[in-house]
Amino acid sequence: MYTIKDVALKAGLSQATVSRVINNHPYVSEDKKQAVQRAMEELGYVPNSSARRLRNIKTKKVAVLISRIVNPFFSQLVDAMEQKAAKHGYQLILCNTRINPEKELEYFELLQSKQVDGIILAAAENKWEAIAPFTRYGTVIYCNEYDPDATVTRVRLDQVEGGYIGTKHLLDKGHRKIGYCQGNDSSVSVNRRRGYLKAVTEAGIEPNPEWMFKDIFTIDNGREIFRRIAAMDDRPTAFFTGSDEVAAGMIKEAQLNGWCVPDDLAVVGFDDQPIATLMDPQFTTINQFTSDIGEKAMEVMLEIIEGKRENKAEDILLPLKLIERQST
Amino acid sequence: MYTIKDVALKAGLSQATVSRVINNHPYVSEDKKQAVQRAMEELGYVPNSSARRLRNIKTKKVAVLISRIVNPFFSQLVDAMEQKAAKHGYQLILCNTRINPEKELEYFELLQSKQVDGIILAAAENKWEAIAPFTRYGTVIYCNEYDPDATVTRVRLDQVEGGYIGTKHLLDKGHRKIGYCQGNDSSVSVNRRRGYLKAVTEAGIEPNPEWMFKDIFTIDNGREIFRRIAAMDDRPTAFFTGSDEVAAGMIKEAQLNGWCVPDDLAVVGFDDQPIATLMDPQFTTINQFTSDIGEKAMEVMLEIIEGKRENKAEDILLPLKLIERQST
DNA sequence: TTTAGTATTGAAATCGTTTTCATAATGTTA
DNA sequence: TAACATTATGAAAACGATTTCAATACTAAA
């Protein structure tokens, strides 16, 4: 493993000159520059970036924290971010927190140790007060998830609206008994529930806690929820699932049990993932323009990093759209 | 941002002693240890890990390079790796190369600069000779993809076998005109094609290059392939797609055009992703026990890092299994 | 021919750690 | 009591880069 010293020696010049060549400083004569480059080439020299970072060089890397990479929403989000970052010469580093608050916090070491210039929080298991201390080491913004106390930019959707339009759609179709699923108590889930409750109560309906489920994330969870409601005496005729994965599982399991969707059970998903158009029936869902969110979040992050934008408490809201298909 | 110097000053001790406390060295008296810890606490001190890394401290981080995070196969693979790594106190860092050789190579900077202890290559756009120089900076192994020249461990599947059993299954069902899709010319694709060709020629059939497609990755690609073959005069009656995403797109598009699967077109996927059981018909595919691959690869990586295993040219093969469903 | 400015280079200080080496204090054995 | 470990500590030298400062060479203006 060669160092700058070896290069300097080989080129018959000082470390300072070699460093100047590496960093494209002016005031290096053409011939010395070439000599240095040749020496680097011959040795296969690569600067040690730990050493460089010690001298406060930007890393041109951004980390994204997500909770569950197996959720296609996150895959797509990250993919869009990555593309945007690459376009600006930045690398994206992906960290999967598995909905574990400690793990989420551990990844902030990347910031502290200057391995990344910024962190995009697309998962938020920790309170803002736990995150805040890290902001002095680099840029932190939220994307999709957020903490209301946060004093940084939040690129997100109006999830209250999301919950509202999904539920309203079912009400408009004449349903009065509408079930609801959510993940954990994240900001997204909490707000969506608010929207659901708003729509339901507006329609003069008393929400039935029996029909509201928590910690529901996967296709298998969706299947299970179907079985739970199928076993009920008084059961919902429609379901707002908050996730296309859950919707897919629920619909499939219903069909396997001889139910007809939407006649026996109407289902609304969330995300407009590919699965929504692949299943039969193609199902109604809410498109949140995932790629746009990812792209916008990365755009904002890069602007802040490069000093072109201030990182203040600000919500950047992106649109949501109900896509009606055959499951409702 | 406080340094070890500040802590030393505050505790009335030397930097060396502080460092010893940080690193749990023996030979530090209990009272000084407490004093140091108190000082660190009060200042909110965190060691600068760039500086630490300069002195060759292990990072307890492993990077995984994948080509396409939106492919559920990779999401699942990574998820399994992450779980295994976490169990051993390691962090996983995910890098999406987007099938771009330069990007793939750029991520090796993480190794060079000691930001990770090892890299698992689940994408292999570069030749081994391009990768080899980096091996002196840390551990490199392959997972799923590989380069035959590589002199490191490869955790993978017998893809020739995979291509063979998928095609053989269609032959056994009486098909003689079997189409084939692959991604780019990766080791996985190349070997799978070998298996396909072996099965076909064994059956005395001349493979038809018209029915063999390349650079096919996505659901939309699958849809397009259907349209291409539908427009042919002489068309295949069955398809080995090499991917559940492609199979899903193809089946859906066929149905939208009034074809019946499997009667008008039989389709075999690859991966046994959730989608394979959600669609109607549920489709035949090849289960490659994705989680097992990820888990095994991470296990091997950690063993090598911790010196319990030698990193030599060795293939660790995991099983494949054809899952027959209703699409064939 | 001075004088001033600009281009070019290297020695040495610096970044924040860990580690080596030296020294001192204490305990243990013969 | 002498000789030798063992424990505890700090000063200073790494690690591999960048950057400051000073020195020199060259050019253009006065």
TrEMBL record, chains A, B:
Residue ranges that the Swiss-Prot or TrEMBL entry lists as coiled coil: none
GO MF, any single term: DNA binding
Domain spans labelled HTH lacI-type: 2-56
Keywords: DNA-binding, Transcription, Transcription regulation
Alphabetical list of SMART domains matching this protein: HTH_LACI
Domain of life per record: Bacteria
Name of the protein in its database record: LacI family DNA-binding transcriptional regulator
Species whose genome carries this gene: Jeotgalibacillus terrae
